[in-house]
Amino acid sequence: MPLRRARPRYDDPEYEPTPVYLDELEEERKKASKKSARKRPAARRKKDEPADEVEAPNHVVIGTNAEGERIVIHEDDEPQWYVVHCYSGYENKVRQIIEQRRETLGLQDKIFDIIVPTQEEIEVREGKRRTVERRVFPGYILVEMKMSKESWSMVRNTPGVTGFVGTGSHPTPLRPDEVAQIVRRMESDAPRVRIDFRVGDHVRIIDGPFYDFSGTVDHIDLDRNKVRVMVSFFGRETPVELDFLQVEKDYQAERRKEEEKEREKERERQEKERQAERAGKSQRAERSTKDRSAIRS
């Protein structure tokens, strides 16, 4: 039932005002409020405001990262191993700085050991052997520490450190079996032999009864440090199993192989040019014949 009508217009006898209902006005106001609520952006927490508390026990929010995600650490009284990411090539320098800052800030009871996982390798180059120390995980160091706000801040703010390795923004300690595997790899008595040849490469034998023979690598056994080389005896290819230290890459043979490939490519290019030239001559001769026939006719 209409509650009020628009003011009548006496100058227009056919004017019929439209009734207005209060319930319809209420429905329109509700719809308008719902639309404005959808468009209104959600309130964002300012950087200055403290992060929400974490309900899990021993979990502490210590700040946010560049993406605005909360950084959560698990405070523990027992020391654990954590992986810290740093600039590649500066692992030893970062370790020295952490050790110095630990002494300066008096955090010996929080940070215990810092190691750069390395492994000895025997490198054979140009017939000379030398032992070199290679980083197992370039760009990473291992830190044994009791995770707390102070220890995290000290390690994280060390020059050269880019962050802790973990799930999202939560530093995750290594499992005991992972630590044991890394330690075994570092304490291995037999140094790893570093090779610079692959299957199909030309190598030269530098030790043993087949000294100064050349051949092609057929198979590489990394577990046994063995390589199978196909050596030519009296015109026949014979497989010979040798130690990694008994062979070296034959760079002269590889250079000759590359030069032969370049010569083959040049021959193919010249052959294509000759074929294109012959085809062009044939087409010109055919057009000339057609032209003469057209003139005679």
Account of the protein in words:
- It is a single chain.
- This protein is α+β, with helices and mostly antiparallel strands and about 300 residues long.
- Among the domains are: about 70-195, NusG, N-terminal domain (Alpha-Beta Plaits); about 195-250, Roll (SH3 type barrels), CATH 2.30.30.30.
- It has 5 helices and 16 strands.
- It has helices at about 20-40, 90-105, 150-155, 175-185, 250-295; strands spanning about 60-65, 70-75, 80-85, 110-115, 120-125, 130-135, 140-145, 160-165, 165, 170, 190-195, 200-205, 215-220, 225-235, 235-245, 245-250.
- The strands form 5 sheets. A 5-stranded antiparallel β-sheet has the order 15-14-13-12-16. A 4-stranded antiparallel β-sheet has the order 4-7-3-8, covered by helices on one side.
- A hairpin with an 8-residue loop joins strand 12 and strand 13 (about 215-220).
- The radius of gyration is 40 Å and the shape is flat.
- Residues about 1-5 and about 40-55 have low confidence and may be disordered.
